[in-house]
Amino acid sequence: MASVEAIAATGSQDRMVILEPRPGARLPLVELDRPVSVMRVDEKDGGIHRVHGRAFVRERADDHTYRVGSGGFWQVHPKAADTLVKAVMQGLLPRKGEMALDLYCGVGLFAGALADRLGEKGAVLGIESGKRAVEDARHNLAGFPRVRIEQGKVESVLPRTGITEVDLIVLDPPRAGAGRRTVDHLTSLGARRIAYVACDPAALARDLGYFRDGGYRVRTLRAFDLFPMTHHVECVAILEPAAKGA
User: How far is CA 4 from CA 39, 112, 116, 210, in A?
Assistant: First the structure.
């Protein structure tokens, strides 16, 4: 094998291995002492294909079960998902009937939490670029009729939706951050609160400057050291419109 990736879900007993054979090599026949799903990395296109078992693992957060496909993203720390959901919801204080955006939504963690709290008259739009993550998010949130998940890059999909105003925004961008173009669009939507979840302090600081230019200020900023050995910090910034003249 060129590589072996092992996934042990914390929200269930699901286990998975993703095998990448060396060029021209075959997969080995392995007898395992417990149920384990097996996936293979395709030599030609780099795609991940199911060999045996499920093509996903199940995780738990905020009293919901989330399907996470092979290669999909889920926080490694067993308490991270619940911790971040709690921080985001405490900062946004969702109200029944509001409209929310969940950008870079992954498998729908924050979209599900918002849908729970916004009630039957509330609505959530999630945007995610990864095809497999979108499939998982639509599956995970199928019980919420007023949640919609769109596939594509945020900077391309969001303008096409025609949305001109929202009440709440959650964004959890990749390490590079959201960037000025996306931030400028978000500040034009008039959200009463925005939650920015960041894994890179430098990108967060840059984007917070763009939000300031667009009329928003930081209400609270919390940092969580999820991996003390490597000091991997996740930040949750809650923003609100700045008072005129501030």
Answer: 10, 32, 37, 41
